[in-house]
Amino acid sequence: MNRLPAVRTVVACCSLAVVAGVAWGPGSPAAAKPSAGSTTGSARVFMVNPVQSSGNQDLVDLKDAARAVPDDAYAPVGLRNLDGSGYLRGSWARVESATGTPAFSRTNTFRYDRSQDQFEQVMAYFWVNQAQEYLQSLGFGSTYRGIVKQSFPVKVDQYGGDNSYQTDKPYRIRLGKGGVDDAEDAEVILHEYGHAIHASQVEGFGASPEAGSIGEAFGDYFAVTAGLAAADQYHWPVATDLACVGDWDAVSYTDTAPHCLRTLTTGLTTADQTGEVHHDGQIWSQALWEIRLGYGALGKSPQDWDTTLIGSQFGYAADTSFVDAARKTWVAAGERDGDAAAALVRARFADRGITF
Ligand SMILES: [Ca+2]
Ligand SMILES: [Ca+2]
Ligand SMILES: [Ca+2]
Ligand SMILES: [Zn+2]
C-alpha cells in the first residue's frame, strides 16, 4: 500500500465554552440554579473511524453488533459547548434522532457502544463541534469571516436509508443508516459538514457540474484534513493510507482492502471527467491533497493551506468552473503564503489538467 508519511502538527484549539443560563452574581435567586447546566461533558467516540485508527481492514459491520469493533477502538473525549440541558445540544450542533431515544444525561456523561443509537448521536455532536472548532482554530470567526457559525441541526437516522446528505436551507446534516451506520465514520460526518461550509460561504454553491464536483472534493478533503488534525490534537493513531476517505463506512461497499469510499490519490485528470460529481470531484481533491503535502516542503503547515484554501472559497462563484476556482485559489495562495506557494498551487492543478 502506498502509505504517505504522517504530517505532525499541533492544533491550538479553541476554548469557546458558552455560559449556560444566567450569571450567578450576588443576589441571584438560588432556586433558579438548574440541576444540569455544565457546558462540558464526557463521552467516547471512534478515533475518526475504527479502521483508520487500528489498521484492521478485516473489521466488518456484523449488523451493528457491539462485538464487531473492539473496545480499544473507542477513545474517551470531552464534550464542549453544550447548552446545559443534558441533551446533545450546544453552540455548534443540535442533535436530533428519528429512530432512537435522544441521548440525555444530567451529568453530561455519554458512554455508548456502536449497537446503541445514542452512539451515533454522540459521534454527530462531537464531530460537528470539532469541525467548527477546527474552522475557528484557523481564524474563521475571528481573523476572518465566520463559517457555519451557528447551532447546526444534525439528524441521525432521519430517513432510515444509507444516504447522508446536506441541505443548505436551513443548514442541516442528515446521517443515514445502512451498511455501517454513517455516523460511525467521522469522515462521513465531516464530508457532509464540508458541504455546509460551502453553502455558508457562497449561497447556492454547486450550481454547475464542476462546482458540484468541487463540493464533493472539498467534502472529502475536509474529512481527511480535519480528521488528521483531530488525531494530532488527541494523540490518536492513524494506521491507514492518509488519503483514504471513509475507511469504515466503505467496508460495506468494497470487497478489497484497503476499503475507501473514495481516495485523494486516484490519478484522475480532466481528461477523465464523466459529469458525475463524486467521480469528478476526485480530480479536484487530489490537487488539494497534493498542495497540502507540498506546503510541508515549503515549511508551511497543513493549517496554513487549509486557511488559504477555505478563505479562497469565499470568492468562488456558485456555478464556478474548475479553472476559475483554481485561479482564485492561486491568487489567494500568493497573497497569503507567497510566490512559491502560488507556484505550487498552479502546478498541482495543472497536473490534474486544470490550467490557467
Ligand atoms: Ca451503530
Ligand atoms: Ca453507511
Ligand atoms: Ca481515512
Ligand atoms: Zn457529498
What features would you highlight for this structure?
alpha/beta; 356 residues; binds calcium ion; 3-stranded mixed sheet; Elastase, domain 1; binds zinc ion
Describe the model.
The chain is of the alpha/beta class. It has a single domain, classed as Roll (Elastase, domain 1), CATH 3.10.170. Helices cover 36% and strands 10% of the residues. The protein contains eight helices and nine strands. The strands form three sheets. It has a four-stranded mixed β-sheet, covered by helices on one side. Helix 2 crosses helix 3, helix 5 packs across helix 6 and helix 6 packs across helix 7. The site of one calcium ion has 6 residues, from helix 2.
Topology of helices and strands:
Layout: E1 41-46, H1 50-54, E2 74-79, E3 94-97, E4 109-110, H2 117-137, E5 153-156, E6 165-168, E7 171-175, H3 186-201, H4 209-234, E8 244-245, E9 262-263, H5 277-297, H6 302-312, H7 322-337, H8 339-351
Parallel strand pairs: 1-4, 3-5, 5-7
Antiparallel strand pairs: 1-2, 6-7, 8-9
Helix pairs in contact: 2-3, 3-4, 4-5, 5-6, 5-8, 6-7, 7-8
